[in-house]
Write a structure and sequence with these properties.
2 domains, 8 helices, disordered N terminus, globular, five-stranded antiparallel β-sheet, 304 residues, alpha+beta, single chain, Chalcone isomerase, seven-stranded mixed β-sheet
């Protein structure tokens, strides 16, 4: 009984300590030395590079570039100089009551900064990252861990200078040069290994359909520096791998705390993708929160 009490006390202390550690990161104006205030009114003074819509989170993201970043981007180059900065605003969307088939921005959810400083951020290929909530303040995430996770994603596109954004091709101005290399399919640049289902954590073993004895597991920095947003973002790439290998595809954090798993639904019939084309239904599982606190399971129709 005494041992149980001691163990319970230790667990409580660990939980409280972790909660206090998270709180110390929350509500700060600066992350990695950067704040929103120091870059002024970027929505008016900088170039709007592109707009992206996230299907998984119903979020519309607007990306802006300062002069140094825009000149490099518009020239089709990737050698961004120190001082180049990208700023991104993420908006939640809602249905327009006057036009129900459209979604419109309805309020800022987050802000993100990507700043080039070769010396200060040498460990992340010269790029520094800062993320803030709708109030312009940091959240409860450890900035070191968050920075590593951000760059693990951006490291997928070194040929773009670690920048995902490309200028919107509204009328393709003559001063913006297209680079064929940036149009490579994401899945072609990711490395997978075939592993036995029997070697997976018990929770994952039970999710993989019985007819599959192996899965294709994504390798690389993403496994080491994985955060919740990646679980949705990686799904299209996992589907590409499923189509190529005919096996389930998996991204599993090295510590086993989070995962994203995709496989063809054995019981599914033909479906219609958002484009209206005929598609195949996939089952997609991923964790909700760190530590496998729960699972999100969705049906995903991919056009073929």
């Amino acid at each position: 009984m005494k041992r149980a009490v001691i163990l319970f006390s230790v667990l409580v202390l660990l939980f409280v300590g972790a909660a206090e550690a998270q709180q110390q990161f929350k509500g700060q104006k600066r992350m990695n030395g950067y704040s929103l205030e120091q870059f002024g009114n970027f929505t008016k003074d900088w170039k709007l590079v592109t707009v992206r819509y996230r299907h998984d989170s119903n979020e519309m993201r607007f990306t802006f570039a300062n002069d140094a970043a825009w000149k490099t981007l518009a020239a089709g180059k990737t050698d961004y100089p120190d001082g180049a900065v990208f700023a991104k605003m993420g908006f939640i969307t809602e249905e327009d009551p006057a036009f129900p088939s459209s979604a419109v921005p309805s309020g800022a959810r987050r802000y993100q900064l990507m700043v080039k400083d070769s010396k200060k951020h040498a460990e992340t290929d010269g790029w520094g990252y800062a993320l803030f909530g709708a109030d312009g303040l940091t959240t409860d995430e450890d900035p070191v861990i968050k920075t590593q996770a951000c760059h693990a994603c951006h490291a997928i596109v070194p040929e773009r200078g670690y920048v995902f954004s490309k200028p919107m091709q509204l009328a393709m101005p003559a001063d913006i040069k297209a680079d064929a290399k940036v149009d490579e399919i994401l899945g072609a640049r990711l490395v997978y290994e075939t592993v036995d289902v029997a070697s997976l954590p018990e929770r994952l073993k039970n999710l993989v359909p019985a007819q599959f004895k192996q899965v294709r597991m994504l390798q690389g920095a993403l496994r080491k520096h994985l955060f919740a947003g990646t679980l949705d973002e990686i799904r299209p790439a996992l589907i590409l791998e499923v189509n190529a290998s005919k096996l389930p595809a998996l991204l599993l954090a090295e510590d086993g705390s989070m995962y994203s798993l995709v496989y063809p639904d054995p019981a599914a019939t033909a479906c219609k993708a958002k484009s209206g084309a005929a598609g195949v239904t996939y089952k997609a599982h991923h964790t909700v929160g760190e530590g496998m606190q729960g699972d999100r399971i969705i049906d995903y129709c991919q056009a073929q």
